[in-house]
Amino acid sequence: MQIVTTAELLAEGLRHPDIRHLVDIGELHRVRRGAYLRGPDQRLVAEQQHRALIQAVAAAHPDAVLSHVSAAVLHDLPVPLRSLARVHLTKQGRNTGSKRLDRSYLHRVTQEIPTVVVEELVVTDLPTTVLDLIRALQPADAVAVADRALALGLDRAELLERIGRERGRRGNANARRVLLFADRLAESAGESWTRWAFHCAGLPAPKLQVEFFDHRGVPVARVDFDWPEWGVCAEFDGEIKYGRLLRPGQGVADVIRAEKSREEELRRASGRWLVRVIARELDDLAELRRTILDAAGHAARRAG
User: Fold this and answer.
1) Helix 16-24 to helix 252-270 angle, to the nearest 10 degrees?
2) Residue range 84-105, pLDDT digits in tens
3) How far apart are the first and last CA of the chain?
4) Sequence spans of domains, the chain
5) CB 89 within 8 A of CB 105
6) Model-level pTM?
């Protein structure tokens, strides 16, 4: 963990509004006036800790299979950080149910468990892991898993067909709804959460990953969400997004400068009104809807 001062951040090329924005999205944590804590990516740390716990728990339960969020970490699926405190195991037997142990949850099933080996560990295969998760997680988190699963090449129809075969499973209705909504074009969990929030706010479905070109046909920007009928684009703006955009040798300040330049090029090329959404804004659906509709109004007045 690293303490940085306002002066140091300004020397890196950030401005005061940029610093406030990094605090909003969780990249910086204010510890006192003029000083901030900048640490490693929280998700990376949590997943590394969970992997270490997996090794210890798996050794103590050689007859069980890693499953649910533990299998998800090994399959590179996004899961809520709050779910990583315990390792999840599944074991085939004569009874069903779940039991909370000291450092794990043990799930019992009667059917055969489809497995694969990942990093020398026996885990539920990718389709089983995805279905276990989207049956159990909150819808926004389930959408993030389903989006990632489709991006990894799983077939929506095959997953839906399996849900139909496994009738009576708790969470099937949620899983079916999530799979029908899922889109392989989402590039981060944050984008998945945002798209679900737009849906719940009653907004029309935006186009995803839309690219814009200048008058010479040169690509100048690609946005997460686009409503061409309104002249409005939106971007999920957060720690997850910035982490994905970082290149070797780059800092967050470099990414912010590049994003500002991209935003200006987008405005010149398309006239779009760009809305940036951060994670904490997704909890207020009425305000989120108002923000997008206000942007549509601004875009219409500017076009007129």
Assistant:
1) 100
2) 999 999 999 888 889 998 889 9
3) 50
4) 1-43, 189-301
5) yes
6) 0.83
Report the alpha-carbon distance of residue 22 to residue 146 in Å, rounded.
Answer: 29
Residue 240's pLDDT band, with cuts at 50, 70 and 90, is very low
Write out pLDDT tens, residues 190-222: 999 999 999 999 999 999 999 988 888 888 888
CATH of domain 189-301: 3.40.960
| Beta carbons of 186 and 195 less than 8 angstroms apart | yes
- Rg, C-alpha atoms of the chain: 22
Pairing of strands 104-109, 97-100: antiparallel
For residues 184, 260, 285, 212, the Cα torsion angle rounded to the nearest 10 degrees is -40
Nearest to 48 by CA among 37, 38, 40: 40
Strands 115-118 and 273-277: unpaired
